[in-house]
Write a structure and sequence with these properties.
Helix content is 74%, strand content 3%. The protein is built from ten helices and three strands, in the order βααβαααβααααα. The protein has a three-stranded mixed β-sheet with strand order 2-1-3. The radius of gyration is 21 Å and the shape is globular.
């Protein structure tokens, strides 16, 4: 908890993103690595969106959600990556106060929306396996659109609250962020006023989102597994392959998000936070299309059909 005795509030108009403090030559190497990862992320997710959109055999709820997942991965990596790449080649590494607020707002929006969308995808698999005859009713096009819209609404609410609380803080002229993008822990750390309420809000919202969505995922997969294990072994392979992709994506995403926001001491570990942030902002969005395309037979077949046509 910070002291409020010295309140010399000078307006901060920009922040300096310290990023990865390394030798200038290593900055070039990091730029090339980040650029490669980002290009693969963009190409992979756009390809996934196009394949699902154009292939008539993939016009099912599962692939509607997967297309939205690719869109979210593309969006939240694009909110961060271009500015990070530019800063690797810049000596100033600045971002305006308003630019910082906008960057954080959209980052929080897309990441939170993805949390809820992953829960929706788990519920979709539960409905498909456990209630196959009612599945067309439970997951009609209207229901799917409402579930995705609901995910965005939840993401927007969290983003508005987090952005409002964070950018109501005072920084007393201190504008050096020990991060490569505008994130709550880094902003809280440089504030010169009492941030106890902000830290509590961060922890409660993060814990609430993670607990709610993981509960839906765990309950869905518990019923899913109990149902699948009762079926003949001949039909299990494809089912486990499809759901295995989702479990892999969920595990990668939630472990990193928990480490960043919902564990004690998250604000006091900037160097660890940078490494974890790279994982869930660049590496996971790059891996998601690969995981789903390599482990999902329908997607692989759709890609093959598109290649054969060419």
């Amino acid at each position: 908890m910070k002291s409020e005795s010295n309140r010399n509030f000078s307006e901060v108009t920009e922040f300096i993103l310290l990023g990865f403090r390394t030798h200038p030559k290593l900055q070039i190497i990091l730029f090339l690595v980040f650029l490669l990862v980002y290009v693969v992320t963009v190409v992979g997710n756009i390809s996934m969106i196009i394949v699902i959109k154009m292939d008539s055999r993939l016009q099912m709820p599962m692939y509607f959600f997967l297309r939205n997942l690719s869109y979210l991965d593309l969006c939240y990596s694009t909110v961060i990556a271009p500015k990070t790449l530019a800063n690797f080649l810049s000596n100033e590494k600045k971002i305006s106060y308003k630019g910082c607020a906008v960057q954080f707002f959209f980052f929080a929006l897309f990441v939170t929306t993805e949390c809820f969308l992953l829960a929706v995808m788990a519920f979709d698999r539960f409905s498909a396996i456990c209630s196959p005859f009612l599945y067309p009713v439970h997951m009609s096009q209207k229901v799917c659109v409402r579930l995705v819209t609901g995910s965005y609404i939840c993401g927007c609410i969290n983003s508005v609250v987090q952005t409002g609380f964070t950018f109501s803080l005072h920084f007393c002229g201190e504008n050096r962020l020990d991060h490569f993008f505008c994130d709550v822990p880094a902003l809280i750390k440089i504030s010169c006023v009492d941030t106890f309420v902000n830290e509590i809000v961060l922890f409660i919202l993060s814990a609430l989102i993670i607990i709610t969505t993981t509960t839906i995922i765990l309950v869905s997969y518990a019923y899913f597994l109990s149902t699948v294990l009762k079926t003949p072994s001949s039909g299990r392979s494809k089912t486990f392959s499809t759901c295995g992709s989702h479990i892999a994506v969920v595990s990668l995403f939630y472990v990193t998000v928990f480490f960043m926001y919902a564990q004690p001491g998250a604000i006091s570990s900037p160097e660890k936070n940078k490494v974890v942030a790279v994982l869930y902002m660049l590496i996971i969005p790059m891996l998601n299309p690969l995981i789903y395309s390599l482990r999902n037979r329908d997607v692989k077949d759709a890609v093959k059909r598109k290649l054969h046509r060419k």
